[in-house]
Write a structure and sequence with these properties.
The protein is of the alpha/beta class and 405 residues long. The protein contains 14 helices and 16 strands. Helix 4 links the parallel strand 3 and strand 4.
Length: 405
């Protein structure tokens, strides 16, 4: 590890040794108690009940519902399938308004089922759907709105709920980033017709791979349980169309194990976020996105905005500099769903209606955090960023020369 970066020669971009021998990743999995997980695995193997609504799955559902404060939780094999099943169970069709600044699965879950995603611009301060832009996107074919709580920062739920109610639209939330967060003192998960959580390995609470839909609608929960198990209502009786969206017992065991450490995970994330914010506070053109300290938050994302109008190092240059130092920072959610297949061909003019989405997608960087990152790691990452800004002239010259060759 080369922990001191000061001069141009120190930077890996100019031939110096990388700051880290082993790469630092965004979203390196939290593990929780190895002993607790091993005990659960042993019990699962002894029981020989590996899937099909075993005791760990049922307990995971109870624990999530209790934590969120809702009546029903339906866990599934992953959040994408959970979103697809929730969309189908809600009877959504035609067109659905969503942000383009989201993970591609939000759009794919609709398009996969023959439903048209209609991309709406975001509020540049919150990075979530701008309620003021939604109504102009509503047509006679619009059946719903999917709000995405991004970075653990909630959408304007009140405004979206008012619009959905007034226009008779279904309201669903993609809450993949927001487990453990609150809005107006209520836990995320209790809003809209339903909310979908992700417990993918990159999330701060993971079940190896997994997702869940939470709701207070008992009939909706019943429909989703049918649809995640081929439509079976009994051992050999199928009532409706369905698919295989079941979570297995090993995944549920990891989810339960991680839930037991949720307070520790959040405290580590908060510590990391505070350190990054403090160490980068003096750099012109860099903003570390803040969180509402009056609400509960999981702090699982450390998000920088690089303002090209003020910063002397642009976003993509900084990404390359960090990657060469083995800091694998990410450009979430670049370049926006509307610029990815198939949407870039289906809606080639979408960018004209998404100016804030375009700008934010060109500015955002996510930095490594979680239990795998130490305070010393963060100090070194911030030192690299400071060194890049201190040597911006030489860096700019090098990138100009590279572009010319």
């Amino acid at each position: 590890m080369n922990s001191s970066k000061t001069t141009v020669a120190d930077l890996a971009l100019f031939g110096g040794p990388p700051a880290f021998e082993d790469a630092l990743h965004v979203g390196r999995p939290n593990i929780g108690s190895r002993e607790g997980f091993a005990k659960r695995l042993s019990e699962i193997l002894d029981s020989r009940w590996l899937t099909n609504d075993g005791s760990n799955v049922r307990e995971f559902e109870r624990r999530i519902a209790g934590f969120v404060g809702v009546e029903h939780c339906v866990v599934m094999c992953n959040a994408t399938v959970a979103l697809e099943i929730a969309i189908r169970a809600l009877g959504i069709s035609g067109e659905v308004i969503i942000p383009s600044f989201t993970f591609i699965a939000t759009a794919h879950a609709l398009q996969w089922q023959g439903i048209t995603p209609v991309f709406c611009d975001i509020n540049p301060q919150t990075h979530t759907l701008d309620p003021d832009k939604i109504e102009e996107m509503i047509t006679s074919r619009t059946s719903g709105i999917i709000g995405v709580h991004l970075w653990g920062r909630p959408c304007d739920i009140d405004a979206l709920s008012e619009i959905a109610t007034r226009h008779g639209l279904k309201l669903l939330f993609d809450s993949a980033h927001a487990f453990g967060c609150s809005y107006g003192g209520r836990m995320i998960g209790a809003f809209g017709g339903a909310e979908v959580f992700s417990f993918h390995a990159t999330k701060f609470i993971n079940s190896l791979e997994g997702g869940a839909v939470v709701t207070n609608d008992g009939q909706l929960a019943h429909e989703m349980r049918l649809k995640r198990n081929f439509g079976f209502t009994d051992y050999d009786y199928v009532e409706s169309i369905g698919t295989n969206g079941k979570m297995n017992e090993l995944s549920a065991a990891m989810g339960l194990t991680n839930l037991e450490s949720i307070d520790e995970f959040i405290e580590v994330n908060r510590r990391n976020y505070k350190q990054y914010a403090a160490e980068l506070a003096d750099l012109e053109g860099i903003t570390v996105l803040d969180y509402n300290e009056s609400e509960k938050c999981n702090y699982q994302y450390v998000v920088l905005e690089i303002d090209e109008r003020k910063s002397i190092v642009d976003r993509d240059q900084l990404i390359e500099i960090l990657h060469l130092e083995n800091v694998l920072a990410r450009r979430y959610f670049y370049p926006g769903c509307h610029r990815m297949a198939p949407y870039k061909d289906l809606y080639p003019n979408a960018h004209l209606f998404l100016p804030h989405t375009e700008r934010v997608a060109a500015q955002v960087i996510n930095l490594p955090t979680g239990e795998a990152i130490t305070p010393e790691d963060i100090r070194i990452v911030c030192n690299i960023i400071h060194a890049a800004f201190a040597n911006a002239g030489e860096i700019h010259k090098l990138f100009v020369e590279k572009a010319a060759t």
